[in-house]
Amino acid sequence: MNYDERSIELHKKHHGKIETGLKVPIENKDDLSLAYTPGVGAVSTLIHTEPATAYTHTIKGNTVAVVSDGSAVLGLGNIGPLAAMPVMEGKAALFKRFADVDAVPICLATQDTEEIIATVRHTATTFGGINLEDISAPRCFEIEERLQDIGIPVFHDDQHGTAIVVIAALVNAAKVAGKVFSELSIVISGAGAAGVAIARLLHTAGVRTIVACDSKGIISSSRSDLNESKKRLLAYTNQEEREGGLSDALKGSDVCIGVSAPGVLKGEWIKTMSARPIIFAMANPVPEIMPDEAHAAGALVVATGRSDFPNQVNNVLVFPGIFRGALDARAPCITDAMKWAAVEALAALVPDPTVEKIIIGPFDTKVATYVASAVAVAAQKS
Fold this sequence. Notes:
about 375 residues, alpha/beta, Rossmann fold, 2 domains, four-stranded parallel β-sheet
């Protein structure tokens, strides 16, 4: 039985992966009077008088909403909110497993930007943070940007979780290749949520040679078909005004980061890159190029999003810890400083990187705690 069949059986047997539980006993009248009426009225009165106590006297302080409209689920595309539920449940399970953060999947029966924004605003009272998930670009950019003022962290994991873990791995890959991180020449295949966020975070790190490509080729000022998020990329990518496709962009480059589609990267193109090239083929479940083919073409370090190859670059290394840290610090938002704290913490967990180990594994018990601590410190400083 393969993973598909086993997963279907697992979900059927358990009716999903998560459930609610009780922190206090309700076995007698005394328990009931404390947990509910009449005692609970005093707690409500306290919160009404001192709103900050909602963080210490309710689930708010440790609970995140995992919000999706089902428009860009994994590699399955726009399959809708109902079919997105197993993925959002999975996200909630990972929050609990890796960072002891309680999370609730909220799958919205709308893909209207204004309705999504309004719904999140209206429900934010219950939560200490909002994890936006599997919402298609370019709507995801506007939704996240316009929710930054609601007083709790709003974090689109497909953007920033991906960017953080990719760049942490790239910091270590550059060490293995003997290259200076800020001087890397980087090509990004894919200009959706992840590609745009990776480019932006690289730019804030001082990397100046970045070229982004979408399915139609290099993103350049000569193109008239760019949406607003791709136009904004032009402020800090493709400063040499290169034209053509992915194969043209890769000539002489040090790094190819794929967040696009299966099989779009060819071995012969890797041969045109600089010495000791670095390949991150992140499309799931089938990467842009298989690791054996990339190595055969001369790639020194190869990473994918898959667990069956070395160097699995996966968001699960990021989102539990970054929300744990943000909740612990009661941060109103997640800043660039907090993202960079997460990057540095993750990279430091592999002090002596090698070709086959540039990033730590998700089951290492240090990951979420270490990331959370670094993020909380950065939050408190800012």
